[in-house]
Amino acid sequence: MENNHKPQTTNQEPDTIPNRVANSGLITLSLEDYYPKGLRLELDIAPWLYEGLILREKDFRESVKKHDWSAYQNAYVNIVCTADAIIPQWAYLLLGVSLQGIAKKVIYGTTEELENTLMENSLHQIDFSVYNDQRVILKGCSDLPIPPNAYLQAATLLSPHVKSLMFGEACSTVPVYKKQK
Length: 181
Hints:
With 181 residues, this protein is of the alpha/beta class. 25% of the residues lie in helices and 20% in strands. It folds into two domains: 26-36 and 118-178, no CATH class; 40-103, no CATH class. It is elongated, with a radius of gyration of 27 Å. Residues 1-10 and 18-23 have low confidence and may be disordered.
């Protein structure tokens, strides 16, 4: 017996599942897009101290003069002293001047403080008015070390502009702010 049954063809596309997230009008803002790229280096002055405790001006100035500053070329640098010593303020100024024109940015403080400073500077370059009356998700997951303070700063900078602000991923958000009607 012959099968004369032919498959029926139509111009319809197969049933598709609508992407409700894509159709929701939500805008996702990822702080990774504003993360300053570049090498981060810490300069610890403890090894330049006499017996690890005392800053002797003549010896310190000689160490600064002989130091190979080229390693800090185009880097973001945080200066610390890990020794329990009293360091005169001028010592940090001398290091900052030595790094002038070499490093991209120099701060006194921890690596965490450097990251906070860099992200805060980056966030203040954004025109948040482009988010006026929008529903925004501040993306929570990141492959880069975005400091918690950056999320706090972004939320405070966004809230005067947005209709609503959420934190997380499109599939799972936490409401943070909703403009009063």
